[in-house]
Structures are given as C-alpha cells and as structure tokens.
Specification:
Blueprint: H1 15-33, E1 38-44, H2 54-67, E2 69-80, H3 87-95, E3 100-106, H4 110-115, H5 122-135, E4 140-146, H6 155-160, E5 168-175
Parallel strand pairs: 1-2, 2-3, 3-4, 4-5
Helix pairs in contact: 1-2, 2-3, 3-5
Length: about 180
C-alpha cells in the first residue's frame, strides 16, 4: 500500500554532506530570489524530516534566515510521524525554531493503520499529540486519511475526536485514491 508520493530513505550515512548541500542551495537560490521578497513561512515536509536531528534542522533554519528575509513571526512547520519522536526531541525542535508541528497520524483506528502499513498504533498517535502539546507547541496539526476501501468515511476521526482534548489548530483530511492496474 502506497499513499505518499514523497521520496524517503532512512540512512544517516550522508547527513553531513547532505546538510552542506542544502545550505549551499539556500545560498545559491538566495542570490536570485531574496531581493525585496519577504517570507512568512518555512515548511519541512515530505519524507519525515523529523528523522533528522533537531540541530540539523536548526542549521537549515539559521541558513534560511541569513540568506532570505524571514518575518519575525514566521510559521516554521516540521512534519513528523508518530513513533519517530518523543517529547524531548519535539522540545528540541521547538528550541531550534520549529513553531508548528504537523503529525502524520492518518487514522486513529488500529486496523486502518495496519492497512496503511504505518509503524504506529492509535495510542502512539495520541501520545505524540500529547507530547507536542506538553513540549510547548501552540500550533499543532494532524493529518488524517479517509476514503479507505471498505471503511466508513472519516472513521477514525469520528470515533476518537470526542476523546481528544488537544488544542489542534488545524487538521488535514486526505482522500485516499487506490489505483488498480489490470494485467
């Protein structure tokens, strides 16, 4: 089952060279795009950027701020997935400048999560939102998928939304389309 179109690998072999390459790209692009332009948001997403160490994300944020005009109250978002962060790592991301966390929960239903081949279960998803709140995030987003084959519309959200007492600013609903190829 594939629902995510983003390229993702899990390796730490080339983090240092990758980070330097990103900072070089920031510097190069700033020469063409920074003059007289002000940016109000930065988004780290696709491929679970929270697998990187918070200090690396902080270096990228500092490089962006050095090379572009970023407003003081810019929204700086990091996508994460339940089971890949704990409260301490979330707090470290906050300390590095991330002020909005987007959690790829996808569902609060364990059967749906297994169908989606997610590494987390319902409780881990709930815990991740609690950890983000306790770490100090005031802007928390959750991503949910609906339209799974054979399931009720927005099943996990309707079942568990009353149990969640989180301060969620937004939640994203994604329609899952399955493409069947006939041979």
């Amino acid at each position: 089952m594939y629902y995510c179109d983003f390229y993702s690998i899990i390796t730490s072999d080339n983090i240092g060279p990758f980070l330097e390459a990103v900072k070089n790209e920031i510097s190069n692009y700033s020469k063409a795009y920074s003059e007289k332009k002000t940016f109000s948001s930065i988004f780290f997403g696709g491929g679970t950027p929270s697998l990187m160490e918070p200090a690396y994300i902080g270096e990228i944020i500092r490089s962006l701020k050095e090379n572009f005009i970023i407003v003081n109250d810019a929204e700086i978002t990091l996508e994460t997935n339940p089971g890949t962060v704990n409260k301490e790592k979330l707090r470290s991301f906050l300390n590095e400048g991330i002020n909005r966390i987007s959690i790829g929960i996808q569902s609060f239903d364990d059967d749906e999560l297994k169908f989606l081949t997610r590494i987390h279960d319902k409780q881990t998803a709930i815990n991740t939102v609690v950890y983000a709140d306790e770490a100090g995030y005031e802007n928390i987003n959750i991503d949910l998928i609906f339209n799974l084959p054979g399931r009720q519309m927005i099943n996990g959200w309707t079942i568990y939304s009353r149990q969640l007492s989180f301060r969620l600013n937004t939640f994203l609903l994604t329609v899952l389309f399955l493409n069947a190829e006939l041979f």
